[in-house]
Amino acid sequence: MSLAIFALSLEQRVYTSLRAHTDQKRIMPPHLLTGERGEDAAFFHLRGLGYTIVARRWRSERQPGDLDLVAWDGDTLVIFEVKARTARDLYPAEVQVDTYKQTILRRMAHAFLLQLPAPHRASVSVRFDVLSVYLLETGVEFHHIPNAFPRFAPPPRGWR
Question: Which DSSP symbol is given to 159?
């Protein structure tokens, strides 16, 4: 085990332990706690895969919603939508990223890109990934869908 992997594993265990302690004191609906725990698990999972995380739960002053995780994968900026569940249901978690949610994520990504220097914005490659996190009793499972939907929305039907 390399030192970097050991350090990341230790960081994750300490963070998870502290998080469990603070969660006991917070009054929050269970589904929101599940979502936050899923985002935490996704954060450490993606770091372990070599992604460089640059934002968590990023919000814009002018757009509704948030970006769960934003990371660099080489020269590509990746916007992650994390969907967490405590069980594998009939429908996979990623089904929740519908057309409406995709529109919100595209707008949020545009707002995020406005933070970059103007000459570089147009050259940044952007990808939208969905990461389903299943917080099961047997452990955590991940289902990663790279390029889950295109950066720009397709034209409406019948549009010419």
Answer: -
